[in-house]
C-alpha cells in the first residue's frame, strides 16, 4: 500500500477520510487469495452462504444511520437518499441470501431420438470462479452490494475496486463480510489507482468481469477482457412519454423525483420527456413549479433534496452543455446556471435540438428536457433514436398503448405509469445497445456468475 487517497465531500471539499491505495503487490496478493479460496467457496453449502449474507444484511440495518451519513458525506448524496440506499443494500444482501437457497438445476429427458433412449440429463450451475468487479461513485453502497452479494451467493470469490471518489461504502461492506465470516481470501475490497485497477480487466486469474460505469469505458474494457465473461451496466439518457390521457399531475411529480434525485447522477435518471401536445403546457408548468420547490444545499441537512455534483468539473461541463443548447435555440424554463462549487441549479429546458449533447449524450446532471409529440408512435421513435437503451417510462391509461410501448421501445425495461428511474433490487436490470450487456438483480447476476454443467446418465448397460 504505497499511496494514500483523500476522500472529500463534494459539497464543501472537506476531507471525509484517508484510505490507502492498493499497489501492484497488494493487487497480486488479493488476486492470488481469490484463486486460492475459490475451491473452498465453491464447496461452501448453500445454507452457509445464505447465513453469511443474512448476517451482513442484518449488520447493515443495525448500523443504518452511520452508514448512511458516511455515504452522504463521501458522495454528496442527500441524507434522505443515502438512508434509502442503505436500506436497499440490506435488501440486496437479503435477496441474495434467498437466491443462494434457490440455486437449483433441472432434469432433461434425452430420448428425443432413438440413440437417447435410456438416458437422462442433469444440469446444475457451478461457480464460475474468481470475479473482478468495478463499482461506480453514484451508488457506491448498493451497486457494490449488487456485485459482492451475488458472487458470494453463487459460491465465487471476488475482488472489488470501488470508485476512487467514493470508496468508503464498499470498504464498509468488505468489513461487514469479513466480520460475518467470509472465508479467508474470498472477498477483497481494494481502492486502487486506475492504472492498477485496469489489471482487473486483463488478468487471466479472473473468470468474469462485472463493471458499472460509463459506456465508452465499459465497451473498451470488454474489448480487452480476453476470454473472461463480461457484465456491463452502463450509461443511458432515459426517455419518458407522457401521453394525452395520463394523470398529468402525477406524471410531473414523478418526473421531478426521477430527474433530480442525487442531482441527476444516475444512469436511469429522467433526461428526455416527450409530452403530448394536448397536455404539454399544463405538464411543463407543473413540473417547473415542483422543481423550483426543491431544496438545494448541504447533503447532510435532512431538508436537502439536491446536493452537489460529484466534482466542480461536472458542474462546469453541464453548464457548457446548456450554453451550447441555448445557442442552438433551446430555452431554459427554470434553473440553467451554476450555484457555486459543484452545485448546479435543477434545470428544465425545452426546444433542445436532437443533435445537442443535452439530448444525444448522457447528461448525468440535474436537468430534464421537454419535447412535444402528437402520436404515441412518434414519441416511441424519438425515445428509440438514442444509441442508449437502458429503461424508459410511459404515463398512460391506455392498455393498448402500454403494450405498444413495451413491444416497440428498444430498452431493457419499460416502466408504465412511472419514471425509468424506478427500480427494486430483485428485478432484472440492464440495457441494450450502448447501455450494457447482461442483467443485474441477484437472481440474474447469479446466472451470469455461474456456468451450467451437464451430466448424462445411461441407465442401460446392454
Mean pLDDT: 97
Strands across the major sheet, in which order? 12-15-16-11-10-18-19
Q: Strand tally, please?
A: 22
Give unreliable regions as ranges.
none
**Class based on secondary structure composition and strand pairing:** alpha/beta
Query: N- to C-terminal separation?
Result: 64 Å
Summarize the biggest pleated sheet. 7 strands, mixed
Radius of gyration: 23 Å
The number of helical runs is 16
- Percent range for helical residues? 40-55%
Portion of residues in beta strands equals: 15-25%
Shape: globular
Tags for this entry?
7-stranded mixed sheet, 6-stranded mixed sheet, alpha/beta
Write up this protein.
This protein has 462 residues and is an alpha/beta fold. Helix content is 41%, strand content 22%. It is built from 16 helices and 22 strands. The protein has helices at residues 24-43, 46-62, 64-75, 79-101, 142-154, 168-180, 194-197, 199-202, 215-224, 248-260, 280-292, 312-327, 357-360, 376-384, 399-408, 442-448, and strands at 3-8, 15-21, 106-109, 119-127, 131-134, 158-161, 187-189, 208-212, 229-233, 239-242, 272-276, 331-334, 338-340, 343-344, 347-350, 367-373, 388-389, 391-395, 413-416, 432-433, 436-437, 450-458. The strands form six sheets. A seven-stranded mixed sheet has the order 12-15-16-11-10-18-19, with helices on both faces. Helix 10 (248-260) links the parallel strand 10 and strand 11. Helix 3 packs across helix 4 and helix 10 crosses helix 11 (280-292). The radius of gyration is 23 Å and the shape is globular. The termini are far apart. The model has no long low-confidence stretch (mean pLDDT 97).
Amino acid at each position: 500500500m504505497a499511496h494514500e487517497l483523500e476522500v472529500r465531500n463534494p459539497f464543501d471539499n472537506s476531507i471525509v477520510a484517508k484510505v490507502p491505495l492498493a499497489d501492484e503487490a497488494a493487487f497480486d496478493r488479493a488476486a492470488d487469495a481469490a484463486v486460492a479460496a475459490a475451491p473452498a467457496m465453491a464447496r461452501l453449502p448453500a445454507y452457509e452462504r445464505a447465513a453469511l449474507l443474512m448476517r451482513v444484511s442484518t449488520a447493515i440495518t443495525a448500523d443504518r444511520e452511520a452508514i448512511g451519513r458516511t455515504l452522504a458525506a463521501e458522495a454528496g448524496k442527500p441524507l434522505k437518499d443515502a438512508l434509502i440506499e442503505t436500506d436497499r443494500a440490506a435488501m440486496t444482501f437479503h435477496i441474495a441470501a434467498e437466491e443462494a437457497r434457490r440455486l437449483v438445476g433441472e432434469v432433461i429427458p434425452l430420448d428425443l431420438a432413438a440413440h437417447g433412449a435410456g438416458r437422462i440429463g442433469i444440469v446444475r450451475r457451478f461457480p464460475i470462479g474468481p470475479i473482478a468487479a468495478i463499482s461506480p461513485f453514484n451508488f457506491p453502497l448498493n451497486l457494490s452490494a449488487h456485485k459482492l452479494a451475488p458472487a458470494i451467493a453463487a459460491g465465487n470469490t471476488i475482488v472489488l475496486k470501488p470508485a476512487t471518489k467514493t470508496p468508503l461504502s464498499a470498504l464498509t461492506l468488505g468489513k461487514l463480510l469479513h466480520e460475518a465470516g467470509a472465508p479467508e481470501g474470498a472477498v477483497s475490497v481494494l481502492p486502487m489507482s486506475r492504472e492498477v485497477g485496469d489489471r482487473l480487466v486483463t488478468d487471466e486469474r479472473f473468470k468474469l468481469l462485472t463493471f458499472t460505469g460509463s459506456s465508452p469505458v465499459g465497451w473498451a474494457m470488454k474489448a480487452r477482457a480476453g476470454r473472461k465473461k463480461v457484465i456491463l451496466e452502463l450509461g443511458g439518457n432515459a426517455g419518458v412519454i407522457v401521453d394525452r390521457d395520463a394523470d398529468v399531475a402525477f406524471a410531473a411529480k414523478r418526473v421531478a423525483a426521477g430527474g433530480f434525485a442525487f442531482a441527476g447522477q444516475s444512469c436511469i435518471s429522467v433526461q428526455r420527456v416527450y409530452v403530448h401536445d394536448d397536455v404539454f403546457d399544463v405538464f411543463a408548468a407543473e413540473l417547473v413549479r415542483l422543481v423550483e420547490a426543491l431544496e438545494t444545499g448541504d447533503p447532510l441537512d435532512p431538508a436537502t433534496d439536491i446536493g452537489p455534483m460529484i466534482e466542480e468539473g461536472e458542474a462546469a461541463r453541464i453548464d457548457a452543455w446548456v450554453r451550447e443548447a441555448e445557442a442552438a435555440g433551446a430555452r431554459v424554463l427554470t434553473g440553467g446556471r451554476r450555484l457555486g462549487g459543484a452545485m448546479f441549479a435543477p434545470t428544465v429546458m425545452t426546444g433542445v435540438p436532437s443533435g445537442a449533447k443535452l439530448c444525444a449524450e448522457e447528461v448525468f446532471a440535474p436537468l430534464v428536457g421537454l419535447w412535444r409529440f402528437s402520436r404515441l408512435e412518434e414519441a416511441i421513435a424519438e425515445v428509440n433514436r438514442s444509441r442508449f437503451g437502458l429503461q424508459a417510462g410511459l404515463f398512460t391509461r391506455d392498455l393498448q398503448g402500454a403494450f405498444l410501448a413495451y413491444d416497440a421501445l428498444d430498452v431493457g425495461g419499460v416502466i408504465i405509469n412511472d419514471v425509468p428511474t424506478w427500480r427494486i433490487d430483485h428485478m432484472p436490470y440492464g440495457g441494450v445497445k450502448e447501455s450494457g450487456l447482461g442483467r443485474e438483480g441477484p437472481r440474474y447476476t447469479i446466472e451470469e456468475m455461474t456456468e451450467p454443467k451437464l451430466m448424462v446418465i445411461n441407465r442401460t448397460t446392454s
